[in-house]
Every structure is written in C-alpha cells, then in structure tokens.
Amino acid sequence: MSEATEKTELVRRSRPAVSSAASAGGDDDKDGPTIKVGEVIDALGVGRFQALLTVFAGLLLLGESMGITLIGIVGRTIQCQWQLPNLRLAIFSLAIFMGFLLFCPLWGFLADQHGRRGVMILGMAFTGYYMLISALSPSFEWLVFLRTVAGAFMATTPQGLVYMVECCPATARAYLLNIGFVVWSVGPVLELAVALGLNAAGVGNETWRILVILSALPIIGSCGAYWLVPETPRFYLVHGQMDKCKASLRHIARVNGRESDFDWDKLRISQEAKTAEAPRVKWLFSRRLRSLTLGLAAISFLTNFTYYGGVLFAQQLVQESGMSNSVAEVLQSSCGGADCRPLSQRDYVNLLVTALSEVPGTVIALSVSAYLERRRMLQVTAGLAGGFTLLLMLSSLAPRSAPLLVSLLFFARGSAVVTINISNIYAPEAFPTRVRALGVGLIQLTGKCGCILTPLIAQVVMPASRIAGLVVYAGAFVVVVLLAAFCLSRETKDADLEDH
C-alpha cells in the first residue's frame, strides 16, 4: 500500500473511532486517534483552497516581477529624461533591492513569531501604496527614496511561498508553486507589452509613470486576497495553539469539500515539543542547519546576481546590436546627456522576445517537477544557464548579430529563472517550521545582495569590459552546481515538512 493510500485510510478510520468514543461518553482526547498536520493536509488533497492560494501567490509574484522589470525600462527612460550618468542609473537600480536587503530578515522574524498572513497583508498594503506614489516622483531623489521604501515592504513577498508550502500536500507543492512561477514569468512579458503599446501610442516621457501604476495593481489585489484565508496550521502547531490549528485545518477541509472526512471535535493533532522562545538567527547556524543555510545563501546570491544582471545588460546588448561597431558610439549611447537614446520600438520587441524565454522555462519546470529531485533540477538548470552565458560571452567577440544575441539571451535567461525558482521551492521545504520564515528571509537577503552588486557589473563594468563581466556571470553558475551537489544533503521532493 502506498504512503498516500495509507494516509487516506487513516482519515477514513479516524471518524468512526472518534464517533464511537463520543457515543460511549469516554475521554475524547485519550480515545481519539492522533494524526500529524502534514497527514491531514495530504489526505485533504488538492482542492479549491489550494487553487485560491495559487491565484493569490500568482498575484503576489506577478506584482513583484513587474516591479523588478521596471528597473530596466524606467532606468533607461529617466536616464535620458533627467540627464543621469551611469553611476546614478546604478543607484536607481539598487533602490528597491536595498529595501529588500534591509528588511527581509526582519519580516521573516515577525512571520515566525506573529504569523505569515498578517505580515503579508501589512507588507502588500504598504508596497502598493508606495509604488503608486512613486509614480508621482518630481525628481530622481524622490524616486529613489520611494522605491527603496516600496522594496522594504515588498520584502514580505517570500512569505507567500512559505504560506503555500505549509498549506499544500507534499506531492503537489512543487507543481502548485511552479504554477505561481509561470505567472511570475508572465510579469516581464506583460510589462514590456504594455510599454511597447505606450511607446507606439506616443505617450513619451510619461510612459514610465503609467507602468509604475500598473505594476502596483497586482500587489494591491494580493493584499485583499489574503484577508480571505486563515493563518497556516503549522504556525499554530509550533506555537502550541492546537484549537486554532484544528480550526485552520477545518477551514481548508471546508473549502475543499472534505470537512466530513474528520470528526473535528474529537480529532487529536500530534504535537512535538514546543517553545515560546522567539526564533533566533543562531538556530539557522546550528550543527544541523549550518550546511543548509550557508549552501542556500550562496546559491541565492549567485543565481540572483546572474539573473538580474542578465535583465539589466539585455537592454545594452539589444541596443548595441543595431548600431555601428564603434566603441565610442556604443559608450556614448549608454551615458546620460544630449545624445542619450531611449529604448526604441525595435528594442522593446527584442526585449519582449527575451522576456518570453522565462515562460517556456517555467512551463518545462512545471512539467518535470513531479519526477525530478529538487537538487538534480538545480544542478541541471544552473549548468545550462552557465553554458548559455558562456556562449553569449564568446559571441561578443564576433560581429554583433541581433538574432544571435536575442537567442542566447532567450536560453540563458530562461534557464537562470528556472534555477531561481527551484531554489525558492527548496528553501521553504528544507527549513523547519519554527524558523522557516526567518530562514527564507535570510536566503532572500543574500539574494538581494547579489541584486545590489550586479548593477555595478552590468551597468558600470560591462560597458568598459564586456568579456570580464560575462566571465563573472558564467562562472557564478558553475559554483551553483557545485554547491547544490555538496551542501544540500536533504531531498525534499514529496517529503513531509519538519516543524522543529
């Protein structure tokens, strides 16, 4: 009998056993069966509740990806509009990541201590607000400040992944999360398609303000959506709030149409030792979790560094591919000043094609996630990303060809984003519930460190030395493969989550 079948039989047996105890007037808590939270969630299966969570997470991820895509589009526009040098452009690119960097661990700590749901609602409300008012920025300084504050609250978005992991059956976690990542990959496509339309309509310098407003709408929508769901049962479990834990499970069962599978008044949830002590960062570096924490932190840093670097220097590559080979002309076009050239209609089309590369990559990951181990997928996708980045580096030695550059960017960016998605699935599955949000927050912090460093390479170093920049990006993926092989010892595919 398979594990899933055994769990289903356990659910079917629990109701009559508890009911008979009730009719005999015995001690309910002693006579009732004991079952783990993970077994209840697995037995309830995938239903309408998980479908709603996927939609909510999709809105969250869509808003985040659209906000990140804005960096390249808005950066080029305001560079020309406000006559910004490359260094100030890099500062703008850093703004939202600085907010992430400073607040990711704090939100993780609060989510582990006070709940995932409340942190997400608070964060998304303020993210949407500050993104909206940043569209009204009268100057570069105001825009950077408001984008930084928006990034600080956007640092709550990883808790959406934690919420999904804790409320989905083990065998469906990767599949449902990858659906959310497919929506995430649509974000850049949607953003660029709107930008293409606005540019064709001749909106001009106000295009970026409209894009900022549109990017805030999914974030605001996700804020309202999470009001409709309860806190995760695993959060209540590790805090010893068993009545609320059962109430949360019962809500999931009711939405899924499976409430009658249990006699909820008599059912006993097994509970491991709990502690009222607040989560601490040092727990992540205990002997049991040290290798996991350091390995995931390094992988997150390198994958985000290379992916967002690709997003930033893609604009430079597609623009330069249509210009003369004069180094002076290329450098002049990338600087602020009278000769600054905004993205053209052709540039938007090329960028849209490269953004589309993320969609098939995430769809492929969605298809194979049920069959391949997380660590193996991480190694394969990181290896592919490194290989295509290396080819991109070699192609820059030859005369520039727009179709070749777009094709290589297509495959390099597609494999890179799948690498990030797999690591984002693995992290919340691998950390125990007691420090899951804090661990994910710390991993996101290191990822944003990579995002902060990459504009300095993509927008400052690469215009001077294309080869040096691409060597750094290609080598980073090789290190990811090695880290995935040697630092991630636990496979989480179809495994129950640890709580302590």
TrEMBL record:
One Gene Ontology cellular component annotation held by this UniProt entry: membrane
Subcellular locations according to the entry: Membrane
Domain of life: Eukaryota
Topology relative to the membrane: Multi-pass membrane protein
UniProt domain Major facilitator superfamily (MFS) profile: residue ranges: 51-493
Keywords of this entry: Membrane, Transmembrane, Transmembrane helix, Transport
Pfam families named in the record: Sugar_tr (PF00083)
Biased composition (Basic and acidic residues): 1-12
Keyword Transmembrane listed: yes
Regions that span the bilayer: 51-75, 87-111, 118-136, 142-163, 175-198, 210-229, 292-314, 351-372, 379-398, 404-426, 438-461, 467-488
Predominant place of localization: membrane
Keyword Cell membrane assigned: no
Gene3D superfamilies named in the record: MFS general substrate transporter like domains
GO molecular function, one term: transmembrane transporter activity
Entry-linked SUPFAM superfamilies: MFS general substrate transporter
Location of the region described as Disordered in the Swiss-Prot/TrEMBL record: 1-31
The family this protein is said to belong to: Belongs to the major facilitator superfamily.
Protein name: Major facilitator superfamily (MFS) profile domain-containing protein
